[in-house]
Amino acid sequence: IQLFLSEDKLDISCEDNFKSVIEEACKSMDKTSVDFIKIKSLVKNDFMKILMAVGVNDFVNIIQEVDPTLHKTILGLETTDNLKLEYLDGYFTNGVDPKLQNSDLRKPYIHLSCKLKKNQDLIQWIKNIKLDDLDSSIFIEDLTNLNNYEALSEVHHKMGNHSQEITTITKCIHEWFKMNDPDLQDLNRYVSTCISSILSISYQKESYWIELVSCLMKEFCNYKDETHKKNACNNILQKVFVHLIFTERKNDNSLYDILAGILNDNEIIVTSSKNLAALFIQIFVSFHLEEAISTTLLKIIQDSSLGMVSSYRKGISEGWTMHNSECEIC
Hints:
The chain is mainly alpha-helical. The chain contains 18 helices and no strands. The chain has helices at residues 2-6, 15-28, 34-45, 47-54, 56-66, 73-76, 81-93, 103-116, 119-128, 133-145, 149-158, 162-178, 184-200, 205-222, 227-248, 252-263, 266-269, 273-318. It is elongated. The mean pLDDT is 81.
């Protein structure tokens, strides 16, 4: 090992030999012996040199064999945060500690992940890990400081904080409209997530519908002079109202309460009635089209069903010829 480390730069061609020497030492030597303690000291002192030579994943496994407490050495080294995150990813995701049990490394791992992971990768990672109250508070603090509301909403979703989740998603929507050239797919994703969350809630749905629709209506009025954003908001609001009306149509009182709650919002009250009128016309036209399509489909289904029922009744009264093992009605 000393010979390997005596070189200014480790020869990559010696990588497998170096790993095999370490593995053999771990298997055959008494880990309390003086010689093995020397090996640990060598590995710790040349931590970065060995890491760069053998690669992150292999080095994580070497450290796990030599002395698991040395993993935290990576945090004190003068190196990039990206390399630290890569090392911690190797530690937590490659089977060493998939449940994030190591409390010394878990908090720095969360900090670096929130800071450096791509947003959709971060959200997928949050979906896949188990959160306890301590971890969720770290996530909430970091993501709030970074204004990453979409990832933050996923944390609230996992913790069952539906009110906070929906409020956070409306912040995503607000930030979307502030962007110079926003991606329409992002807005669709935010609103779809919000609707799914509302539909999964069994109580106080009205207040959440009011929060979502009020948010969109305010943005519609704020950006009425920007065609792209105005049209995007218009189309999204039509979809939201169709969801709302078809979800709450069995409960007229609930629907009226939602509409009243939206129109009682102070910011909407002071909005020009001309702007709101144009918006509502579009929404109601959309709703009537959806309703007409639904009615037409229902009529087609009913007409088809009536024909089948007539055939069935005729078959019962006159006798039914079975040409194969399947009933034609079924």
